[in-house]
C-alpha cells in the first residue's frame, strides 16, 4: 500500500519537460546562493503538500536580467503594448546585479501547460519563501507597486523595496 501511495503522489506532481528542467536549473544558478536555497526549500515544501502540488508547480520565470532586457520590460505599458510590469530602468533593478543576482520572479506551471501569475498562489508561495529564510522579501508586500512574482534578498535592496 505504501508503494502505491507514493506512486499516486508522484503522478500528481506537475512534471516539467527535460528542456524546462534544464532551464529551471540554469535560472537557479543565476540566483544568489541564499535566495536559491530559500527557493529550493519552498519548492520542496510546495511539492510535498498533497493539495498545493495539484494546483500548479512554481517555476522561475526570470532571475538575472541584462540592462537591455530591463529596458525592454520598462517600455512595456509605455511605448510598447501590455501592462506596466516594472518601474526600474536598466541598471536600477536588483535583477541587474550579478549574476548571481539577489532577485528572482516566480509563476506557476499548470497541469494544462499554461503559466499563471495567480495572486493567491503567489501569496501562498511567498509564505514558504519567507519561512525558508527571513532575509527574503516578497514584492507582494510592498506598499505601492505590488510586484507579486518578485522575490529578493533584504540585504541586497539597491534602491529600496518596491516598484521593481
Any overview of this molecule?
It is globular, with a radius of gyration of 16 Å. It is built from 6 helices and 5 strands, in the order ααααβαββαββ. The chain has a single domain (2-156), classed as 2-Layer Sandwich (Muramoyl-pentapeptide Carboxypeptidase, domain 2). The chain has 164 residues and is α+β, with helices and mostly antiparallel strands. Strands 1, 2, 3, 4 and 5 form a 5-stranded antiparallel β-sheet that branches. It has helices at 2-11, 18-30, 33-48, 52-55, 67-75, 119-132; strands spanning 57-62, 103-109, 115-116, 136-138, 150-153. Helix content is 40%, strand content 13%. β2 (103-109) and β3 (115-116) form a beta hairpin. α3 crosses α6 (119-132).
Would you spell out the secondary-structure blueprint of this structure?
Layout: H1 2-11, H2 18-30, H3 33-48, H4 52-55, E1 57-62, H5 67-75, E2 103-109, E3 115-116, H6 119-132, E4 136-138, E5 150-153
Antiparallel strand pairs: 1-2, 2-3, 2-5, 4-5
Helix pairs in contact: 3-6
Pfam family, one: Peptidase_M15_4
Domain Peptidase M15C: 91-153
GO molecular function: peptidase activity
Amino acid at each position: 500500500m505504501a508503494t502505491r501511495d507514493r506512486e499516486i503522489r508522484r503522478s500528481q506532481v506537475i512534471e516539467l519537460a527535460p528542456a524546462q528542467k534544464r532551464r529551471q536549473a540554469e535560472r537557479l544558478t543565476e540566483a544568489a546562493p541564499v535566495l536559491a536555497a530559500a527557493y529550493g526549500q519552498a519548492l520542496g515544501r510546495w511539492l510535498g503538500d498533497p493539495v498545493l502540488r495539484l494546483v500548479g508547480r512554481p517555476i522561475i520565470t526570470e532571475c538575472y536580467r541584462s540592462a537591455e532586457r530591463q529596458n525592454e520590460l520598462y517600455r512595456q505599458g509605455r511605448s510598447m503594448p501590455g501592462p506596466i510590469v516594472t518601474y526600474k530602468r536598466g541598471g536600477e533593478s536588483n535583477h541587474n546585479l550579478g549574476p548571481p543576482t539577489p532577485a528572482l520572479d516566480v509563476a506557476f506551471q499548470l497541469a494544462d501547460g499554461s503559466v499563471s501569475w495567480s495572486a493567491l498562489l503567489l501569496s501562498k508561495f511567498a509564505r514558504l519563501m519567507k519561512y525558508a529564510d527571513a532575509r527574503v522579501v516578497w514584492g507582494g508586500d510592498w506598499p505601492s507597486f505590488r510586484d507579486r512574482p518578485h522575490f529578493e534578498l533584504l540585504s541586497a535592496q539597491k534602491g529600496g523595496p518596491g516598484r521593481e
